[in-house]
Each structure stands twice: as structure tokens, then as C-alpha cells.
């Protein structure tokens, strides 16, 4: 079952599901934020703060599960800065998001000193080996840690919440027409603030998965653009949770394949392989944006709301 | 309860008061941060903001200010033109890298020829390199409606891998005994961006930054294109009725900012940096975003803002060597500055009113 010089497709699929988790979680969170009409470009900053927060909490408590929650809390706390600036002080969302990323990168680099070279407690496989060792389906369906299943479950939950619950309807109303939502009596800025905090928690948890499971250790600048790729995947997915999952898995697949080709020595220079994920993201953005005017973006995306009455 | 009320017209006072207020608030918040890290906040703030100007080593550090401020100003002016029109080029870091590679490649290609035409051609090549790199998101935006923020940012990572390839491969010094990095321009006078006046840290990059600031100011206040940029940012619909083509504006703004970032990279690699190396880029392209906002997207304001951010770099280095302050603390400090700036900016367009009674 080998092709591409020793790359096993079963292992490839199993690995891509794990490697997609950080961007999947972050992109799901950002999809909710953008559905509520807010463009938070600080995903990269929230992810790296989550990566550090999760790592520190996991190392200090010895529990990776508490670590993941630590990452989520760290990401949410950072996102509250963005929420305060854009929802209370009505600052420009693009500029504030960029500031969040710059600040997050700085804080993580500052706070991460002294955590280099430490191994975090391992996040192990969730299900027993008897299942995971089954041929083909074992590694793909049963061989993962709990966060992989959590990320898929979150996709389903968010799809259901956005599509068929009252909460989802309110979030979409706020994102499509904040004036109308306000006239109906909804607290536009408060709802958005909660969405932003949720997005921060998801990004933080995604970041924590990088430092606790993918790498796993603390390195400066560990997210390496994952937050920006998550933003691109939200556009790719037309703000729909299941498409976010597909986008994240496609991207995870490309990343894994690229790494495998590097190891396998395919003759393509390493530099060109490592720029492939970014080039493919651009290509996908072009394909998704071409020909369509707004491609389903929430109507109020990026606009601040100030209740004059 | 305090509530916000929209001002009938933006406040002139807060337009100018916002940057200094933000700097002071950042000093206070930064001081608290430095104190938490176990350093004396007053000493750190003095080391960053006072010593480079008037301290013991000021005779040397003052020169360093323009060296750092030059690229920041050059990049920020280009970015500000776009930001004013609502065009978000945030990949200046990548354009800076590609400009440096183009400029350096031209110089290294003709090594060791001596001619006074080499350096001017390298300047053109540097600007061209940055322009090309910025044209990718610009054309994708105008042709396919692709988000320029994401594309320009992705291209930073691509540029970084090209830089790695350049310093270990196609621009590597053949006499470098296998070490990564290109030939050093300090040993190639015809292609070197030497200091014109060392005590002030003035090289051609600094000259270009100051000239560009004046030209950009004239463009924005006196020229049709500048009017179109401002109109497109403030009233996109009105701009379209006025006959402003959004696509042409994207190409113009992205192209200008890319060319300026490329120039900055070219002056840096042939001057202060000296050679193409893997860690050649130091984040000027991102810090320039802060400079652009601190300067209120106004070219003359950006010159001032460039010097303030340069102060945090130079002073930060001082604080790091003499007081052991981590380099990352300065990055946090710069990020905070942008936060405070954006927060205080609310006062330009809104005022706080005490809401009397039940609303």
C-alpha cells in the first residue's frame, strides 16, 4: 500500500487528522466570531498565547487535560482585550486584530523563557489498543487522543447551534444586520463580546494542541502562521463548520505530505516544500474568491456597532 | 453610567493628543510590567526613552536612532497610504525581504566590478523586488477578489523560505568557507550603502525616508491621487461616483507600499545589515504597522512616530544589555502602544457622557 516512496496512506490520513486539530479548532472559533459580524485578525496571537498557557499549565500541574483548559483560558483572556477595544472603544477591527497578534507574539516570547527544552506530560491515545490496532480503520478511527475527537464533536455542535438553535439565530442576526438585531432588543456588543471570547478559547486550545501534542515542547514562534491559515480556512469554508473541517483536513493533509516528502527525500528542495502550505492556501483563497462577490460573508463583517438610541 | 456619544465632527484636539497620551499610558503600563519582572521600572523607562538621547552613550546611540527609524518610516508611509484607502497590506515584511534579495542579487552579480552606476541600479532593483511581491496580492485582489490581508501575510512566510534559500544557496558567499550568508557589502564599496554622515546615522536609506515623507505629504494634500486615496477610505460610495477606480487604487497603494518596503530592505542589506543572512529580517515590516498608526497615517506624523519606535529599539537594546531586560519585553511594549493608541482614539470621534437617570 505504499506510494510516494514509502508513504503509507493509512498513516497519512491518521496523521493529517491530528495535524489539522490546531487550525480546525481555531478556524471553528473564528467562524463563530465572524458569523457574529466581527473580524478578529488576532487568531495567530491568541493561538500562541494558548500554546504557551497550555504548555505552562500542563507542565506545572502535570496534567495535559488541565493544560488544554489553561490554553483555552489564556486565549480567551487575550481575546477580551480585542473585545474591549472593538466593542467598548469601537476601535478599528483590522488594526486591533493585528495589534493582538503582535502583542501575543511578544507576550508568549517573554513568558516562554525558562520553558525551552522541557517535555510536557504526554496526551495519549484515548481508546484501548485492541481497537487502535485494527487494520486500516484502527489508526484512522480509533488511534487518536481525545482532542481529535473533541474537535470533530465541536464541528458537529457548532453546525447544529448555528443552524437550528435560537442562540445560533441570534448570532447570525447580529452578524447580518446589527441595526435590526438591536431594534429587536438584542445587546449587539454584548453578544459579540461573548462570541469573541469563545473564539479566543478555541484558538487558545488549538494553540495548546501544537505545544502539547504536535511538537511537543515550547519553541518561540511555535505557531508559525497557523492562525493566519485558520483565517484563510474560514473564508475557504464560507463560514460553515463542516466545510471548516474539510478545509482543515485538506490543509493538514498537505502539511503532512509535505513533511513526509521532506523526510523521504523526494528530490524537491526542502525550502520549496516548506513554502507549499502557504502557496496552496493562497491558491485555495483565489479559487474560493474568484467569480463571487461576497461568497456568503456575514453582511456586517468588520463593522462596529454603536447604538445611537 | 458613562456612555459614548458620537461627536458631530471629529475632535481636532484628540486627533493630535492621542499619540502622546498613548505613549504616556504605555510607559505607565509598561512600567508596571517591568516592575512585575523584577526590574526597576523608572530605571528601565529612563534607559529606553532618555539615555539614547541624552545619556552617557548618546553620542553613539543618537546615530543608531536614524538607522532604525529610516526603514520604519519608509515602510510605514507606504502602508499608511493603503490603510487610508482601506487597503490592508500587512505583508511588508515579505516585500522588505524580497527587495533586499533583488537589490543584493544585482550587486553580487557584478562583483567585483567598480562603477558608480551599480548602486543606483541596485536601488531600482530593490524597489522593483518589493513592488513585484506586493503586486501578487494586489492583482489577486483586483482579478479574483482575494483578501489582500491573508495573501500578503502568507507571502511573508514564502519570502522567509526564499531568504533561507538565498543565504544558503544562490546568494551564498563562495568564499564564505561554507557558512551561510552572502558576501558582505562592507568589502564592496561600489555596492555599499555607506554612512553619509556617521554621527547622525545618515545613509541613503535615511535620506530616502525623509524625502519620501515630504513627497507623500504633498501627494496626500495636493495631488489628485492623494485625494482619491482619502476619499476611498472615508466614503467608498462617493469615491465610486467621483470616478475612482477601486482596482487602480489597490494597484497604486499596494505597489507604492511594496516598492517602499523593498527599498527599505535594499538599504538595510547593503548598509547596517551588510549581507543577506537567514535572520536578516527583524520585524520592521510589522513594527511599521504600529508606526503608521502612531503617526496617525500622516507622513509627517510617521516621521515622528518612526523615531519614537526607533527609540524603543535602541533603548530596548540598552536596557537588555545593562539591565537584563529580555528583548521580548520591548515587543510587548510596542504591542501595548498600539492597543493604547486604538483605545484612546475613540475620543477623536466620540465623547463620554454621564447618562443621567434611567437612560
Offer a few descriptive terms:
heterodimer, A: 309 residues, mainly alpha, ABC transporter involved in vitamin B12 uptake, BtuC, 14 helices, B: 359 residues
Care to describe what's here?
The complex is a heterodimer of chains A (309) and B (359). By secondary structure, chain A is mainly alpha-helical. Chain A has helices at residues 9-19, 21-35, 43-61, 64-88, 93-111, 129-132, 137-142, 146-164, 166-176, 178-183, 188-214, 226-236, 241-264, 270-289. Chain A is globular, with a radius of gyration of 20 Å. Chain B has 359 residues and is mostly helical. Helices cover 70% and strands 3% of the residues of chain B. Chain B has 15 helices and two strands. In chain B, α4 crosses α9 (224-234) and α6 (118-144) packs antiparallel against α7. At the A-B interface, α4, α5, α12 and α14 of A face α6, α7, α12 and α14 of B.
Protein topology:
The complex is a heterodimer of chains A (309) and B (359).
Chain A: H1 9-19, H2 21-35, H3 43-61, H4 64-88, H5 93-111, H6 129-132, H7 137-142, H8 146-164, H9 166-176, H10 178-183, H11 188-214, H12 226-236, H13 241-264, H14 270-289
Chain B: E1 2-6, H1 12-36, H2 41-49, H3 51-54, H4 58-84, H5 92-109, H6 118-144, H7 148-170, H8 204-222, H9 224-234, H10 236-241, H11 246-270, H12 284-294, H13 299-322, H14 327-344, H15 346-349, E2 350-354
Antiparallel strand pairs in B: 1-2
Helix pairs in contact in B: 1-2, 1-14, 2-13, 4-8, 4-9, 4-11, 4-12, 4-13, 5-6, 5-7, 5-11, 5-12, 6-7, 6-11, 8-9, 8-13, 12-13, 12-14, 13-14
Amino acid at each position: 500500500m505504499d506510494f510516494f516512496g514509502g508513504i503509507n496512506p493509512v498513516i497519512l490520513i491518521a496523521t493529517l487528522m491530528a495535524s489539522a486539530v490546531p487550525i480546525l479548532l481555531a478556524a471553528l472559533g473564528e467562524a463563530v466570531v465572524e458569523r457574529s459580524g466581527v473580524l478578529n485578525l488576532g487568531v495567530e496571537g491568541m493561538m500562541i498565547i494558548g500554546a504557551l498557557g497550555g504548555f505552562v499549565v500542563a507542565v506545572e500541574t502535570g496534567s495535559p487535560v488541565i493544560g488544554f483548559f489553561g490554553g483555552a483560558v489564556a486565549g480567551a483572556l487575550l481575546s477580551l482585550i480585542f473585545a474591549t477595544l472593538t466593542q467598548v472603544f469601537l476601535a478599528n477591527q483590522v488594526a486591533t486584530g493585528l495589534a493582538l497578534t503582535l502583542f501575543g507574539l511578544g507576550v508568549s516570547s517573554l513568558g516562554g523563557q525558562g520553558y525551552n527544552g522541557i517535555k510536557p506530560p504526554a496526551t495519549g491515545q484515548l481508546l484501548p489498543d485492541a481497537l487502535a490496532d485494527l487494520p486500516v480503520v484502527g489508526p484512522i478511527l480509533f488511534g487518536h487522543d481525545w482532542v481529535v475527537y473533541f474537535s470533530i464533536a465541536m464541528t458537529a455542535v457548532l453546525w447544529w447551534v448555528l443552524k437550528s438553535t435560537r442562540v445560533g439565530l441570534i448570532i447570525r442576526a447580529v452578524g447580518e444586520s446589527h441595526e435590526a438585531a438591536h431594534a429587536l432588543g438584542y445587546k449587539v456588543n454584548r453578544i459579540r463580546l461573548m462570541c469573541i471570547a469563545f473564539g479566543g478559547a478555541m484558538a487558545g486550545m488549538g494553540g495548546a494542541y501544537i505545544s502539547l501534542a504536535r511538537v511537543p515542547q515550547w519553541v518561540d514562534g511555535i505557531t508559525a502562521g497557523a492562525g493566519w491559515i485558520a483565517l484563510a480556512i474560514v473564508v475557504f469554508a464560507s463560514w460553515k463548520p463542516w466545510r471548516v473541517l474539510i478545509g482543515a483536513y485538506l490543509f493538514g493533509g498537505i502539511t503532512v505530505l509535505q513533511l513526509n516528502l521532506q523526510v523521504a527525500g523526494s528530490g524537491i528542495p526542502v525550502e520549496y516544500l516548506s513554502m507549499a502550505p502557504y502557496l496552496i492556501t493562497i491558491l485555495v483563497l483565489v479559487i474560493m474568491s474568484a467569480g463571487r462577490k461576497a461568497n456568503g460573508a456575514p453582511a456586517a463583517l468588520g463593522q462596529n456597532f454603536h447604538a445611537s438610541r | 453610567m458613562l456612555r459614548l456619544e458620537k461627536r458631530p465632527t471629529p475632535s481636532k484636539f484628540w486627533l493630535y493628543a492621542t499619540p502622546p497620551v498613548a505613549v504616556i499610558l504605555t510607559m505607565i503600563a509598561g512600567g508596571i510590567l517591568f516592575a512585575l519582572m523584577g526590574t526597576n521600572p523608572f530605571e528601565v523607562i529612563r534607559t529606553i526613552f532618555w539615555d539614547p538621547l541624552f545619556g552617557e552613550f548618546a553620542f553613539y546611540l543618537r546615530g543608531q536612532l536614524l538607522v532604525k527609524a529610516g526603514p520604519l518610516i519608509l515602510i510605514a508611509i507606504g502602508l499608511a497610504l493603503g490603510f487610508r484607502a482601506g487597503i490592508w497590506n500587512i505583508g511588508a515584511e515579505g516585500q522588505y525581504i524580497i527587495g533586499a534579495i533583488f537589490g543584493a542579487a544585482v550587486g553580487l552579480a557584478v562583483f567585483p566590478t567598480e562603477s558608480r552606476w551599480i548602486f543606483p541600479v541596485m536601488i531600482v532593483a530593490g524597489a522593483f523586488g518589493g513592488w513585484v511581491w506586493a503586486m501578487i496580492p494586489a492583482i489577486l485582489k483586483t482579478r479574483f477578489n482575494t483578501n489582500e490581508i491573508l495573501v500578503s501575510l502568507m507571502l511573508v512566510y514564502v519570502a522567509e523560505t526564499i531568504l533561507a534559500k538565498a543565504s544558503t544557496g544562490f546568494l551564498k558567499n563562495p568564499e564564505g568557507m561554507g557558512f551561510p550568508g552572502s558576501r558582505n557589502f562592507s568589502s564592496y564599496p561600489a555596492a555599499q550603502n555607506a554612512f553619509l554622515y556617521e554621527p547622525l546615522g545618515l545613509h541613503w536609506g535615511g535620506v530616502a525616508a525623509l524625502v519620501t515623507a515630504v513627497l507623500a505629504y504633498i501627494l496626500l494634500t495636493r495631488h489628485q491621487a492623494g485625494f482619491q486615496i482619502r476619499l476611498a477610505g472615508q466614503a467608498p460610495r462617493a469615491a465610486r461616483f467621483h470616478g475612482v477606480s477601486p482596482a487602480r487604487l489597490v494597484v497604486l497603494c499596494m505597489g507604492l507600499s511594496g516598492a517602499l518596503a523593498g527599498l527599505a530592505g535594499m538599504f538595510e542589506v547593503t548598509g547596517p545589515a551588510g549581507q543577506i543572512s537567514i535572520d536578516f529580517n527583524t520585524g520592521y515590516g510589522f513594527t511599521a504597522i504600529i508606526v503608521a498608526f502612531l503617526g496617525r497615517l500622516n507622513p509627517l506624523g510617521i516621521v515622528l512616530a518612526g523615531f519614537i519606535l526607533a527609540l524603543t529599539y535602541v533603548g530596548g537594546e540598552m536596557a537588555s544589555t545593562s539591565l537584563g531586560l529580555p528583548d521580548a519585553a520591548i515587543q510587548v511594549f510596542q504591542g501595548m502602544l498600539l492597543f493604547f493608541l486604538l483605545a484612546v482614539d475613540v475620543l477623536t470621534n466620540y465623547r463620554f457622557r454621564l447618562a443621567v437617570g434611567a437612560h
